[in-house]
Amino acid sequence: MQTLKNKDYKIIIWSGTRTDILGTKLKQTGLNKSVDFYIGNKPASTTQIKGPALFAKIAKHFGIDPGDLKSESLVIGDGKADINAGKAIGCPTIGVTTTKTHEDFQSAGADFVISSIEDLPGLLNH
Question: What is the pTM of this model?
Answer without folding.
Answer: 0.81
